[in-house]
Structure formats: C-alpha cells, structure tokens
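Subject: sequence -> structure tokens, single chain

Hey, anyone have a minute? Need the predicted structure for the following. Not urgent.
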Amino acid sequence: MRAYVTNRVPLPLPSGHPFPMVKYDLLVDGVRAAGAAELCDPEPATPAELSLAHDPAYVERVRHGTLEALALRRIGFPWCPELYLRACDTVGATICATRAAVEEGVGVSLGGGLHHARRDAGAGYCVFNDIVVASRVAQQEGLVRRVLVVDTDMHQGDGTASITADDPSIFTFSIHSATAFPLRKEASSLDLALADRTGDEPYLAALAGGLARALEAARADLVVHVAGVDPYVGDQTSRLSLTRDGLRRRDRMVLEACRGLGLPVVVTMSGGYSRRPEEVAALHLQTVAVAAAFDGR
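Reply:
Had a minute. Here:
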C-alpha cells in the first residue's frame, strides 16, 4: 500500500499555536518504523487542479499572500510562502493516493481530509479541499465516474458539502457531532448529527446504518474516507467519546463495507487535537495499519 507524505514543507507557526503540526512528522516516523506502507512523495497540486474545486482568484490570493486578515483568521494559520507550498503538497498527496487506490484498492494520504475549505475561502485549518480536488482529478482523468465521501471526522464536512452541492456525481456522507464546529452546518447528501458523549456502540450502530444508505444511494466507483481521530475521548475537541478501539472498529467497518462491493478506498487523516501529539500520531497510525490490512483486494 502506498502512503503519501504531506510534511515535506515545514510550516513555521507562532509559539503556542493550537494545531499540532508535529503530528505529521511523528506519523511518518511511525509508518516508517512499522513498515505499514510504502512511503511516497507526492507531486504538488497545480493551480489548474486546485481550480477544479476552488475559485481561481482564491487560489491566487493564497499563492501570493493577498488574503484579507479575516480570511486568514478563519483559516487559522498566518500567511507565509510555505503555507501555499504545504497546501499544494497536501492536496497532491490525496490526488496521488486516489490514483494508487484505483490501481491497488487502497491508498493513503498522511494528511489531508481538509473538509472545511470552501470554493472561495478556507476555514478551520483547511486551506484547500483536497477531497473534492482529488475526486475531480480522478473524474477528469477517466479513472472514476462517481465518488462517495465518507466523513467520520468529529466535525461536519461543511466545505465539501458546500462545494459539491450541485454536483450529483459526488455523494457526501458526514457523521459528526451535532454541537461541534461549525455551528452553521451545510446540507450533505446524508448527514448524521450525533449527541455529545455518544460512545462506541451507539456511534458504530449509527455509522453502519448510514454507511449502508450512502453506499446504496451513491452508486460510487470510489470512496474517500475522511478518517479524523478527533472523535477520540482524549481529544481536546472531542464530544463523541470514542475509545481507541472504537476508532479502529470504525475504520475497519468502512473498509469492509467498501471491499465487499469491490470499491477502491482513499484514506485521509483529517482532524486530531490531543494535547499530546504523539497520541494523535498513534491514532492516525492505527488508521494506516487498518488500511494496510486491506491492501490488495
């Protein structure tokens, strides 16, 4: 199984910044030490590829550092040249992982899942929406016709839903906390909003039902799993209270359902905000290990 790194361009952040960027370095180290996947460098996404999901004017503002102060606050990162380069690598990793999934059954982006980015704006630490860009690149290349996005991050995939609202070829399924960011939700093709402290068994039961509905309705050729680990009970933002085993069972459920239908799966890491970056990296590594077990359908 091929896994594409997203941390080739260090992103300098102010001291005390809440996003644990070091988790990506720790994850790559963990994948390498465990031999869980073949580590690959991506080709960065091009402006033309980014414009499959984003307003070209927005892409250029990110590229040249002309975003307004409010726009940067909504993204959550200060602008620097590395911001654009890192974002292009991240989207490129998901594009490459998508091609690998079509060829081999499973592909992994060791980052990505940037589901809050909209057509003309970023938000919630998401600059560009790699999910939609990669899906449309695959469609443009004739690799797939229809895509199902299964978003199991704790936060709703509002940006993905917004960009694809008028695109019947991309079906969006988001299972998330009803009370977490964003407060104003978008309408996915299918939304399951769960109560605080849901826990493993009710969560997995809801996921099983929603996944069956989504797979039937989407009639997809490809599945993108946005596998955020922020539902974990130890996460700073968690409201769903899943255990580590609950996350493992979640990831396995998605892959088993897709494998049963012969569908290739792209896995992205998305959110994870534990106060201990090594804990976040270990949870992401568990997701990679589950995906690796399904390599080579």
